[in-house]
Specification:
Number of domains: 1
Distance between the termini: 18 Å
CATH architecture: Alpha-Beta Barrel
Number of strands: 10
Radius of gyration: 20 Å
Oligomer: single chain
CATH topology: TIM Barrel
Number of helices: 13
Strand order of the largest sheet: 6-7-8-9-10
Order of helices and strands: EEEHEHHEHEHEHHEHHEHHEHH
């Protein structure tokens, strides 16, 4: 752990609510049981690409990570393929990450896995290998954030092959320095549909005062090579479906303090979704006596869901309809979407006319409340 001063609430001005690691190639192979080492994720050089890529069990092609490590580089240096030893060190070295945060004026970061690497963990059907991967990543992450727990928020991955395993892993990680929430890739029961047994996980999180975090989308399908013409533009597509799913499963009636964060989904779409869901609810409920919500769907949205955004000027203009307390700024560093080291320049350009108290909530205060910074 870094020897650093205790930070008070007033020491935070900007918190990146969605940053990422760029994990080292031996993270898994050095930590899993030897029987899994040939199947564990690892980085290898890919000659025909001229760079390094992740080799993932169940994925036919190597997975590049260049776009996950190129923030701040000129356009002609950004690309899918790169060599790991040539990237900026902050993705895997906590002191280097603090230096990079300081260069950008960021006081704290909430840290997520590399997305396609986490998808490979969520979708792994071999239960033993799945748990070995999850525990290896969680342990490495916990060591990283413990270096500066007043500046890092670690979000352990929840395993998804049954609630007993999920609760056990939550209990194993609780209390470690810098652990400030948990990440869910698909429901603890292993599917993309909530089940009553999942309640044991929500109960444990609410008891511990921890948020439930979903990065972009839930999935139990192995990742693949990006083939879309413009990947990343529709990151919010999955979130509204999960929100409706969770509300109508009665999760928030049973756990009225549970907070869910959808990271990297932006938020300009939220007012439209709230309007449409309420409209359909009022039309359909009279025909469905089995639906017994205690409030309108939008009321649950307002109380339980939070969203991180990178560039969403439309969302900022419509912050009252979204809910100022539900919005969190993020940079996505060190991914291509980040404006590092000029995040403050982008923020200031987008915040014209926004009251200081709203700016504070979006840039810092909401993340402090959700993740316990400054306490």
């Amino acid at each position: 752990m870094q020897n650093q001063k205790i930070r008070k609430a007033e020491d935070y001005r900007l918190i990146n609510a969605d940053g990422h690691f760029v994990e080292p190639g031996d993270l898994f192979t050095s930590r899993v049981d030897k029987k899994f080492r040939d199947r564990a994720p690892r980085i290898e050089y890919v000659p025909d690409k001229g760079g390094d890529g992740w080799i993932l069990d169940g994925v036919s092609e190597p997975i590049s990570f260049g776009m996950n490590a190129c923030a701040g580089l000129p356009a002609d240096k950004q690309g899918a393929w790169c060599k790991f030893d040539e990237i900026r060190r902050g993705g895997y070295d906590p002191q280097a990450r603090l230096d990079e945060m300081d260069a950008d004026g960021v006081d704290a970061e909430v840290l997520y896995p590399t997305p396609r690497l986490s998808l490979a963990m969520f979708a792994q059907k071999d239960v033993e290998l799945h748990l070995a991967m999850v525990r290896a990543w969680n342990d490495w992450m916990a060591e990283f954030v413990a270096y500066a727990p007043t500046r890092f928020a670690g979000l352990p991955v929840i395993p998804n092959h049954g609630v007993e395993m999920a609760v056990a892993e939550i209990d194993r990680m609780l209390g470690k320095p810098g652990i400030r929430g948990f990440t869910m890739g698909c429901y603890p029961n292993g599917t993309l549909a909530p089940q009553p047994e999942d309640d044991a996980v929500y109960a444990r999180l609410t008891e511990a005062g921890m948020s439930l975090n979903i990065h972009v989308a839930m999935s139990n399908i192995m990742p693949g090579v990006h083939k879309a013409a413009l990947p990343g533009w529709g990151r919010f597509f999955d979130a509204p479906n999960r929100m409706v799913q969770m509300v109508f499963a009665g999760i928030f009636d049973r756990f009225p303090t549970l907070q869910v964060v959808f990271a990297e989904t932006d938020c300009g779409w939220v007012p439209y979704v709230k309007e449409q869901v309420d409209n359909n609810y009022h039309r359909i409920v009279p025909t469905r006596p089995d639906i017994k919500l205690r409030g309108k769907p939008s009321e649950y949205f307002n109380k339980h869901f939070n969203y991180t955004y990178m560039t969403d000027t439309f969302g900022i203009r419509n912050r009252v309809d979204i809910g100022v307390k539900n919005m969190l700024w993020c940079s996505d560093y060190p991914h291509i979407s980040a404006d590092w080291p000029l995040s403050w320049k982008t923020i200031q350009a987008s915040m014209g006319g926004v009251a200081p108290e709203d700016q504070y909530a979006i840039l810092c205060g909401n993340a402090m409340r959700l993740y316990g910074f400054g306490k």
